[in-house]
Structures are given as C-alpha cells and as structure tokens.
Amino acid sequence: MNDDAFLEVSNLSVGYGATRVLDGLELTIRKGEFVALLGASGCGKTTLLRSIAGFVAPSEGMVAVAGRDVTRLPADRRGMALVFQSYALWPHMSVAKNIGYGLKLKRLSRAVIDRRVAEIEALLGLEGLGARKPAALSGGQRQRVALGRALAIDPQILLLDEPLSNLDARIRLKVRHEIGALQKRLGITAIIVTHDREEAMAMADRVVIMDAGRIAQQGTPEEVYNRPASAFVAAFMGAENALTLYGRIAGGTLWITAGPHDAGAALPLGGRKLQSGPMEARFRAEAAELVAIDAPAPVAGELEFSGHIETASYLGGAWRHSVRVGDESLFADAARSFEVGAPVRLRIPGDKLFLFNLPAPERGLPLPPHVAHEPTERLLQAT
Ligand SMILES: Nc1ncnc2c1ncn2[C@@H]1O[C@H](COP(=O)(O)OP(=O)(O)OP(=O)(O)O)[C@@H](O)[C@H]1O
Hints:
24% of the residues lie in helices and 34% in strands. The protein is of the alpha+beta class. GO terms for molecular function: ATP binding; ATP hydrolysis activity; transmembrane transporter activity.
C-alpha cells in the first residue's frame, strides 16, 4: 500500500453485460482529502463511485480502505455513506427519523439515536425541523437531511453522487460552500461526482477528470485548469476554442508558422513538451483580446488572427463575441461590444495558449486548412 493511501482503487474494471465501463482504473485518496470525479455524461463517474461504495461488483481489481481489501464486503460494512442525487429520503418519515435511519438499522438505543440526531440537526442547521416530513422542506433543506442521514452513521468515507443537481443555481452555490466547509471541519474523506467544472474546482482538493472509463488527468483545481495534459482536458476545462497550427521548435522558442489569417508568432516554449509539427491549439474565450482591425501590431509573444464579428452577447461583466476566422468560429470576450460584421483582430497571449502535438499527417492525406501551406515532406522531416 502507498503510505499516503487511505482509499485505494487498483486495476478496477467494471462492465454491464458486454459493455466495459471502467478499464483498469487506478486511484488513490488520502485521509481527509476531498476528491471530485469530473467528466461528461456516461464516462463512468457514478459507476466508479458505486463500485467504491459496494453497490456495483467489479469484474477485476480491488478497493481497499486503510490497507484492508473491502472489494467483497457488502456496502453497509465498508464504513462509507452515499448521498444520492435524488436524496432518496423516506417520504413518510420525519426529518429526525430519516436522519436516524442508519442508526436504527444498527440497532442502537433510542437515547443514543436521539442524541446523535440532535447533534446532526445542529451541525447542519436543521434545528426545529425534526418533526417535518420531507415534502414540507425546501430543496436545500432536503439535501441537508440526506447529508445528515449519511453523516449520522459516522462514516470514514462520504460519497456524494451529484448531490447539488436538483437545487436551483443560487441555492447550489450556498450548499456547495456548506458541504465544502463541513467536510473540512469534520476532516472526513470525501468523493463527489459531478459534471460541473466550477463545482468540482470550488469544493475539492483534487479534481479527477474522467474520459471513457479512464482517468484523463488528476491534480489540484489550479493544475488541471492551467496545465491541462491533453486537448480533451483543456476542452473540458473550458478552453473550447480550437485551432490547428504548425509549430517549429528551435532554441527554446516555438515558431508558429504564418497562416492565411495570421502572421505567425515566436512564443517562448516555456515548460511545454512539444515537438515540431502540426499542433492543436486551445484557448479560453476570456484569454483572448479583441482589438479593432487598425490597432497597433501585437507585442512579441502574442498570436493574432484577423476575422470579423459574427455575434455579440452580454454575459454580465464582459461581452462574448463569436469571431469568424476563415472556416472557424472562435469565441472571445471583451469589455465592450463590437458590431456584428466588424473586422477585428483576435489576440491570444502565448502563455494562455494550450498546445498539443497532432499525429504527423500521412503522406498524401490533406493537411488541415491552417497548415496546408506547409509541404508534407517538411512536416514529416520536422517531427
Ligand atoms: N445498470 C446499468 N446497466 C447497463 N449499463 C449501464 C448501467 N449503469 C450505467 N450504465 C452505462 O455505463 C456507462 C457509464 O455510466 P455512469 O452512470 O457510470 O456514467 P456517469 O459518468 O456517471 O454519467 P452521468 O453523468 O450521466 O450520470 C454509460 O454508458 C451507461 O449507459
């Protein structure tokens, strides 16, 4: 066992019938850590959470807690509690009975249950609501009762399956903060499943980004946001603008070859691990700058494209523009709005550009439009 590991998932494979959903997955979580499983719908987040909880049996691999193999243990003997997206409260039971439900199953005495329920109600700000039925609670209160029921049994690991998705946007922000603060206060190890990037980043110490049953990248919110390891992660973390560029590496500089709508650029290579050749470039709308077509030339280290405004919409704080650059539509934010149809330049500082090598093109296959002016032989030699 890894010294730091509290929850250890090794070589975990899970399938439903012939469909393999998780494929040799490895994940280690420290005691007291809050981890978010983030990914698109269907990538296997819930399956992983339910395998850890003991509700789904893996075809291969192991789940261990504090060095003990729990893979074959039933869910109620793993020291874990799962909060469901739907809350799954008993509608006919009061708040107090719902919170005490797990304790009753453990056959604890009435006095012990009452004391623990009162503690949990105080912890979650549910005092005075103990006699109410779930139907007489707000969404946020129901969510807290579900959380209370999970915490009442004093689990070692708290598992949260999209716990905020039934709440409206404003309450969501509040409850997100409450759960984060509570997790830190209790020092409990927790895993949350979400497809909301901001939620994952705001709540978790570590974000695990999943793609088709595998971990695409994991790291602190700052790492996965600012240093995405692949074009997939960059796109998932909001760098939705994509371009194909040709770059040549020489002496610590990345020379971007001029294209039909840009003059190329010389960018510091920084820590990027790139080879000369065609690249996928990704950037966020808020990383770009829009300037009038007659604005002075960009400073060194910026890449600039010319295009025209397709649409402009106010998002609050900034205007988001769709800019037509050749065959591509790119999004860029600006403090003011540009008129639809106006010719503009779209600038991206080199350090805001995420770049990933594309496979070298096969001889004879057409190159993407932005790099079509590079002879194929040169591309092949360079890579
Ligand atoms: N009980 C099941 N039987 C068959 N296939 C299933 C079952 N549960 C999930 N799947 C399939 O397994 C894949 C992963 O599902 P899972 O619920 O783990 O994804 P997810 O990332 O949590 O998605 P979402 O964000 O939509 O909840 C999906 O293709 C889904 O259709």
